[in-house]
Amino acid sequence: MNAMVLLSVASAFFMGTNQEVVQSFNNKCDNFFFQNTEPAGFENNYEYICQVYNNQNRYATLFDQQNLIPVYSAYIYQDNNCTNRMDSWKLEPQLADSSWPKEMMTIIELVNKTKLPLETVEPKIEATQAVREDYVNSGFDIGHLNPVCHQNGADNKTATCTFTNAAPMPHGFNVRWFHQYENLIRKNLSQQCHQGSVFIVTGTIPDSTQKIKNRVSIPSVVWSAMCCQMNNGSYLSIAAYGINTDTGTIDTTLTVAQLNIYLSRAFGSTVSIFNSTLC
Ligand SMILES: *[C@@H]1O[C@H](CO)[C@@H](O)[C@H](O)[C@H]1NC(C)=O
Ligand SMILES: *[C@@H]1O[C@H](CO)[C@@H](O)[C@H](O)[C@H]1NC(C)=O
Ligand SMILES: *[C@@H]1O[C@H](CO)[C@@H](O)[C@H](O)[C@H]1NC(C)=O
Ligand SMILES: *[C@@H]1O[C@H](CO)[C@@H](O)[C@H](O)[C@H]1NC(C)=O
Ligand SMILES: *[C@@H]1O[C@H](CO)[C@@H](O)[C@H](O)[C@H]1NC(C)=O
Ligand SMILES: *[C@@H]1O[C@H](CO)[C@@H](O)[C@H](O)[C@H]1NC(C)=O
Fold first, then answer.
1. CA-based angle 197:169:252, to the nearest 5?
2. Is residue 276 assigned to a domain?
3. What CATH code is carried by the domain that includes residue 211?
4. In whole angstroms, what is the distance from residue 203 CA to residue 72 CA?
5. pTM
6. Nearest ligand to residue 88 Cα
7. For residue 80, which atom of ligand 1 is closest to its CA?
8. What are the 10-residue block averages of pLDDT along the chain, 279 residues in total?
9. CA-231 nearest atom, ligand 5
10. How many angstroms separate the Cα of 202 from the Cα of each of 83, 101, 130, 220?
11. Could you tell me the residue range of the domain that residue 225 belongs to?
């Protein structure tokens, strides 16, 4: 049991309830949420990750350690030309050992940083998150939640390539999500919004009955919600809901309220992504 789990068990005990958010993003990376407010309704022993790369917070991830995939990543969309980068996939040392760095890195970099042998580092990482071997020959893409083409600048793009920001997606779904949802935001909707005000939360509905390598959940659904302030001061929001199978359909015409209803049903609690009447 790691320190974060111990902490949450202890807090839940002292508060006499497990309904309280006993750990949260704690102002460390609240700026990635609309009005600095994280989604309501997900409190369930998840891990709260401020995704740090090259000494800067890049976005926030709520991570489901039982299923080894993120419940969501929350980020600010940046205008960009969608130049893809080939990056090595990174991992999250702090999940494996709370005394390890709070910054994403490759396993090689972590071995170097901790000065521990690979045979010591690797099992601790594998116990707490997905790794490259999970995806190799699995038939699934490493599907980004915060995608490269919604970020600008080399470091912001690089920071999306970390396993805690990804879930298994069939290739066909991954491609359609890119064309039908990510491009809709990039090419059509973001133009109507103030740069720097486009808040996006993209997540999954984990399915513990379907896993690759008997470890990493293949989510049944990939969803997303966007809220921004338009150039005329009004707020614009949309939501999307995709069935994560090779031929699964993607609906990009939902309201955030409709998505909240779907997610509330799936998570068995009252989910409110933006928790604001403006979206
Ligand atoms: C995209 O590319 C065009 C043409 O090269 C350039 O003028 C523009 O500034 C770029 N936009 C971004 C957001 O990088
Ligand atoms: C290993 O760590 C040292 C500093 O401790 C650093 O100078 C070097 O670049 C690192 N090498 C790699 C491959 O990360
Ligand atoms: C990188 O992301 C941060 C946080 O979202 C943002 O403030 C910054 O402007 C981005 N950098 C570039 C080059 O777009
Ligand atoms: C997005 O923009 C393109 C080009 O401006 C347009 O052809 C397309 O119909 C738009 N799609 C939606 C869903 O608005
Ligand atoms: C801003 O523009 C949107 C669509 O372009 C429109 O629906 C909305 O009413 C406008 N708001 C104001 C305050 O003019
Ligand atoms: C914010 O979340 C709380 C807790 O789920 C809920 O009671 C409240 O109605 C939400 N507010 C809005 C504006 O969605």
1. 45
2. no
3. 3.40.570.10
4. 4
5. 0.90
6. 2
7. 13
8. 37 33 70 95 88 96 97 97 84 96 96 97 97 97 97 95 98 98 95 93 97 98 97 95 97 98 96 95
9. 1
10. 21, 25, 18, 14
11. 3-267
